[in-house]
C-alpha cells in the first residue's frame, strides 16, 4: 500500500465533522507524521489558548478578600479571608486553584488584572467575538490567530484546535487552523495504524511470500520507533485535561504547531454560583497544573506559554439567586516557563463603578501584542492593529 493511499485513508477517517465545520481536519497520525518530516525547532515559542466560555466571575477567581466592598456587595457569595489562597495582603486565589497557587509561588504565573475592551458589551456572543477577533469597534470576518496565519506561511498545522469545530479566533481570510479529531474518527485512525503494525510483524513460521507481504505492510508505516510509540493520551478527549494531554504529547513529539486552542465551558453562573464555578475552576486547575509541569521538564515544552481568558467578568454585586450577572473586566492568567510571574495591570476599584460594572484597566489586545511579538516572534500589527504595547510578563 503506497504512502499516498495511506494518507488518503487517514484523511477520510478523520471524519466529516471537520468538513461540516469548515475546518481543515487533521488526525493524530497526521501530527506525528509532521513531527517526523518537519519537527519543531527547539526553543520555538508555543502558545496554548484556553477559552473559558460563559463569562467567568473574576472576583471569585482572583479574590479581593481584604476589600470590605467585596464582602458588602456579596454577603452570601463572598469567600471568607480564611478560605482564600493568599497571594499578597489584598488578593488571593479561589480555594479550587491550589495547583496554580504553587505555579504562582514558582514565579511562573502572571495575573493580568482588570482586562476588558472599550465600550464593553454584555452579550456572550458579541463579547466573545470581540475577544476572538480583537476588533472591539466593528465585526470583522477573521480572528486574531487567523490573521497571524494569513501572513506567516502555508503549513496547515501551524495552529491546531483540539476538536472538530474551529473557534472564530482561528479563522483567517486565506487560512484556518487545523481541527484535530478527538473522538471516534481519531480512534479509527489510531486503530488503522495499530493494524498496520500488527500485520507488519514478522513471524518465525512465515513463508518467504508471507515475509514479503509483512515487509510491504511495514512500508506503509513510518519506521522511526519514536513515531510508532507515541499514542494519543488515554483520557476523555473532550475534557480540558484530555485536550491539554493531547497538546502536551504533541509538543513533546516536536509537532511543528505554534498555536493550540482548547476550551472549557459552563461559566455563566447566574444562579448558585458557588456550586458551579468552584468545580469548574478545579477542572481548570487539575488540567493546567500537570500540563505546565510536563512542559517544564521537556526540551520543547519549556518554551510553551499558556493563556486562559473568558469573554467578560461578572457584576460586582450578587444577584438574588446566589449568582452574578454579566459584567465587564476580569483577570487573565498567563503561565509557563518563559513567564515572569506576578501581577500586571491595575486592580479595578470595587466602589468606583460604571453602572455596577468594573472599569477595565487593561486592554486585552496588549496581552495579545506581547504573546505575538515574544512567544510567536511575529509582527503583532496584522492581528491587533497599531498602538498596542507589551505588559512585561514575558
From TrEMBL:
Q: Where are the transmembrane segments?
A: none
What InterPro entries does this protein map onto?
Answer: DUF1501 (IPR010869), TAT_signal (IPR006311), TAT_signal_bac_arc (IPR019546)
Name listed for the protein in its UniProt record: DUF1501 domain-containing protein
Taxonomic placement: Bacteria, Bacillati, Actinomycetota, Actinomycetes, Mycobacteriales
Amino acid at each position: 500500500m503506497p504512502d499516498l493511499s495511506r494518507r488518503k485513508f487517514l484523511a477520510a477517517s478523520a471524519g466529516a465533522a471537520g468538513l461540516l465545520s469548515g475546518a481543515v481536519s487533521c488526525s493524530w497520525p497526521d501530527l506525528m507524521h509532521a513531527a517526523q518530516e518537519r519537527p519543531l525547532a527547539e526553543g520555538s515559542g508555543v502558545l496554548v489558548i484556553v477559552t473559558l466560555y460563559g463569562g467567568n466571575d473574576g472576583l471569585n477567581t482572583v479574590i479581593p478578600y481584604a476589600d470590605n466592598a467585596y464582602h458588602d456587595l456579596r454577603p452570601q457569595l463572598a469567600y471568607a479571608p480564611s478560605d482564600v489562597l493568599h497571594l499578597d495582603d489584598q488578593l488571593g486565589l479561589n480555594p479550587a486553584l491550589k495547583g496554580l497557587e504553587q505555579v504562582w509561588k514558582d514565579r511562573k504565573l502572571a495575573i493580568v488584572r482588570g482586562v476588558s475592551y472599550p465600550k464593553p458589551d454584555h452579550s456572550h456572543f458579541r463579547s466573545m467575538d470581540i475577544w476572538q477577533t480583537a476588533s472591539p469597534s466593528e465585526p470583522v470576518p477573521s480572528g486574531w490567530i487567523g490573521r497571524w496565519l494569513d501572513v506567516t506561511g502555508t503549513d496547515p498545522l501551524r495552529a491546531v484546535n483540539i476538536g472538530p469545530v474551529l473557534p472564530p479566533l482561528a479563522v483567517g481570510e486565506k487560512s484556518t487552523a487545523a481541527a484535530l479529531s478527538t473522538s471516534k474518527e481519531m480512534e479509527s485512525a489510531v486503530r488503522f495504524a495499530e493494524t498496520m503494525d500488527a500485520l507488519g510483524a514478522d513471524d518465525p513460521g512465515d513463508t518467504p511470500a508471507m515475509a514479503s507481504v509483512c515487509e510491504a505492510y511495514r512500508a506503509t508505516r513510518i519506521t522511526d520507533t519514536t513515531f510508532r510509540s507515541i499514542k494519543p493520551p488515554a483520557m476523555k478527549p473532550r475534557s480540558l485535561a484530555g485536550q491539554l494531554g493531547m497538546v502536551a504529547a504533541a509538543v513533546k513529539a516536536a509537532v511543528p504547531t505554534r498555536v493550540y486552542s482548547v476550551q472549557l465551558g459552563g461559566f455563566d453562573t447566574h444562579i448558585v454560583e458557588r456550586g458551579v464555578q468552584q468545580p469548574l475552576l478545579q477542572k481548570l486547575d487539575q488540567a493546567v497544573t500537570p500540563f505546565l509541569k510536563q512542559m517544564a521538564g521537556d526540551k520543547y515544552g519549556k518554551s510553551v506559554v499558556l493563556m486562559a481568558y473568558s469573554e467578560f467578568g461578572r457584576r460586582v454585586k450578587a444577584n438574588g439567586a446566589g449568582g452574578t450577572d454579566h459584567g465587564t473586566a476580569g483577570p487573565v492568567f498567563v503561565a509557563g516557563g518563559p513567564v515572569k510571574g506576578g501581577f500586571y495591570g491595575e486592580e479595578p476599584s470595587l466602589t468606583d463603578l460604571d453602572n455596577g460594572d468594573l472599569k477595565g484597566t487593561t486592554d486585552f489586545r496588549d496581552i495579545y501584542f506581547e504573546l505575538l511579538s515574544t512567544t510567536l516572534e511575529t509582527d503583532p500589527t496584522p492581528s491587533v492593529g497599531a498602538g498596542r504595547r507589551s505588559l512585561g510578563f514575558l
